[in-house]
Specification:
Helix content is 40%, strand content 24%. It is built from nine helices and 14 strands.
Length: 305
């Protein structure tokens, strides 16, 4: 049939078959008999004049057209669900599950308390949080939102800037007592450092005039986690280039001090990134708004007094 309602049930059937991998699994999910699902897909293919699925093996495979169509069909159904939520009475209360990814150190120190407060305010909401220092694939792994620190490169994602992240060169008093205090980038060649595994070999500094100085610091310890590096720096194993949100407590407690203050490093930023959808889901928008207000452009962790 060619009415609009049957188009929606065809889309639903198609998406269900793709996601569940077979006609019978899709039928079970939709509470229909297998032949009904098969019929809907045939009608859809007939109307479009293209083949969407290859039914050769026991598993169903998408054709190239099928893959293109699936991405858009899924989007249309999500948009519809979102539109219905928007006008329904429970719109005011956040419902459903929000799947969030964040780096480990920031996640534990600053995102976790924020999430606790957000969930206390929104009692109908469930959260699924993945803390990991690797950069997750937001779309493929099905995250609603990921927290990222750096400068953005992935243009397929939308991003909201949450806060600036100051990077500072720090050392422990006992490191300075042993190795002396570096005054300028060239001095670093005679020092040792603990460093993020994914940062290049060279560190770049800017003097007061804005001129850049690049230097390769000898690295004693590499790690993908900032808290491990912080501990190593406190233990006197080397200089550390660290974000202020990791170092703030150690600086307050005088376990570390900032060195080479006449030279600066380019700030990076804390972002919330999310897949490009025409509709940003209500819960994602509310969550990002909450984080923006909490961290601000003068984040609390930079208040060192």
């Amino acid at each position: 049939g060619n009415n609009k309602m049957s188009q929606f049930s065809e889309l639903n059937a198609f998406v269900a078959v793709v996601e569940r991998g077979s006609f019978s699994a899709a039928a079970e999910h939709m509470g229909l008999v297998k032949s009904a699902v098969s019929k809907k897909i045939s009608e859809l293919e007939e109307r479009l004049g293209v083949r969407l699925l290859n039914r050769t093996t026991r598993r169903v495979n998408l054709t190239e057209s099928g893959r293109l169509f699936y991405d858009r069909a899924k989007q249309v159904l999500q948009d519809l669900a979102e539109a219905e939520t928007m006008v329904s009475s429970d719109y005011a209360a956040l419902q459903g599950t929000l799947k969030v990814a964040a780096p480990l150190s920031f996640g534990l120190s600053h995102l976790a308390p924020a999430i606790n407060d957000f969930m206390s305010e929104n009692t109908g909401l469930k959260l699924d949080v993945d803390l990991d220092d690797r950069q997750v694939n937001v779309v493929e792994e099905g995250f609603d939102v990921a927290i990222r620190i750096g400068r953005l490169s992935d243009s397929t994602l939308m991003a909201r800037r949450l806060a600036p992240v100051k990077l500072m060169l720090c050392a422990s008093p006992n490191y300075i007592a042993t190795w002396g205090e570096p005054e300028k980038p060239q001095d670093l060649l005679r020092h040792q450092a603990v460093s993020y595994a994914n940062i290049g070999k060279s560190w770049r500094f800017y003097d007061k005039a804005g001129k850049s100085h690049s230097v390769q610091v000898p690295i004693r310890l590499r790690s993908n986690n900032g808290d491990m590096l912080l501990g190593a720096a406190i233990a006197g194993l080397g200089l550390v280039m660290t974000p202020s949100f990791i170092a703030c407590k150690a600086l307050r407690q005088k376990q570390l001090q900032i060195v080479m203050q006449d030279f600066s490093v380019k700030d990076v930023y804390l972002y919330a990134v999310y897949p490009q959808t025409r509709f940003l889901s209500h819960r994602v928008r509310k969550f990002i708004d909450f984080l923006t207000m909490r961290f601000t452009d003068k984040p609390y962790w930079d208040a060192l007094d």
